[in-house]
Specification:
The structure holds two protein chains of two kinds.
Chain A: E1 5-7, E2 10-14, E3 19-24, E4 31-37, E5 44-49, E6 55-58, E7 61-65, E8 71-76, E9 85-92, E10 100-101, E11 105-110
Parallel strand pairs in A: 2-11
Antiparallel strand pairs in A: 1-3, 3-8, 4-5, 4-9, 6-7, 7-8, 9-10, 9-11
Chain B: E1 5-7, E2 10-13, E3 19-24, E4 31-37, E5 44-50, E6 53-57, E7 65-68, E8 75-79, E9 88-95, E10 105-106, E11 110-114
Parallel strand pairs in B: 2-11
Antiparallel strand pairs in B: 1-3, 3-8, 4-5, 4-9, 5-6, 7-8, 9-10, 9-11
Classes of the chains: A mainly beta, B mainly beta.
Chain lengths: 111, 115
């Protein structure tokens, strides 16, 4: 089945630093989404991408839909303590409604 | 707030018992999804409904699992004869009728612990 590989698995950074994480697949995806999950809660949608090459921002977050349609990137600029959490990429393949998720990137910020 | 709601938030049950979870989607969202998430992993798809029709089921959804959405609004997920391996967070999500409709909005989840 389709699998999404997220990297890195975890990140430890200082407050104010920029963060980059990515998601790759051996299959072509026609939608990419990025979610953030806090402990004990459901994932919260951050950004949705629909076209190859698309670059979309949401405040300090910027995500890109890779031109090969097999990868996506999420950048967070000037990190703040509330950015702590687990970030998941997810995608859909052509003709399917279900989301396939990556394993997540755990972000920890030292103040 | 009119987000996705789930009930209960936590459930502890003994092995062999039946449990039922409820999900209320965002109003007027016609698609509803169930996912399961175990510790340290991303959510895994279980099943989805468009209105009251169940259109896809994962092979993860064994015969002990059944989901319904009788009136196209709320949905229930029942697990019969629970096993310890069923312990997980069960997440519900919904997506709108109008394009783009791949954006799924999740509820807070139901944490199931089978002892």
């Amino acid at each position: 089945g389709q699998q999404l590989n997220q990297s890195p698995q975890s990140m430890f950074i200082q407050e104010g630093e920029d963060v980059s994480m990515n998601c790759t697949s051996s299959s072509i995806f026609n939608t990419w989404l990025w979610y953030k999950q806090d402990p004990g809660e459901g994932p919260v949608l951050l950004i949705a991408l629909y076209k190859a090459g698309e670059l979309t921002s949401n405040g300090r977050l910027t995500a890109q839909f890779g031109t090969t349609r097999k990868d996506s990137f999420l950048n967070i600029s000037a990190s703040i303590p509330s950015d702590v959490g687990i970030y998941f990429c997810a995608g859909t393949i052509q003709g399917a409604q279900k989301l396939v998720f990556g394993q997540g990137t755990r972000l920890t910020i030292n103040p | 707030d009119t987000g996705v709601s789930q009930d209960p938030r936590h459930k502890i049950t003994k092995r062999g018992q039946n449990v039922t979870f409820r999900c209320d989607p965002i109003s007027e969202h016609n698609r509803l999804y169930w996912y399961r998430q175990t510790l340290g992993q991303g959510p895994e798809f279980l099943t989805y409904f468009q209105n009251e029709a169940q259109l896809e089921k994962s092979r993860l959804l064994s015969d002990r699992f059944s989901a319904e959405r009788p009136k196209g609004s709320f949905s229930t997920l029942e697990i019969q004869r629970t096993e310890q391996g069923d312990s997980a967070m069960y997440l519900c999500a919904s997506s709108p009728k109008t394009e783009p409709n791949y954006e799924q909005y999740f509820g807070p989840g139901t944490r199931l612990t089978v002892t």
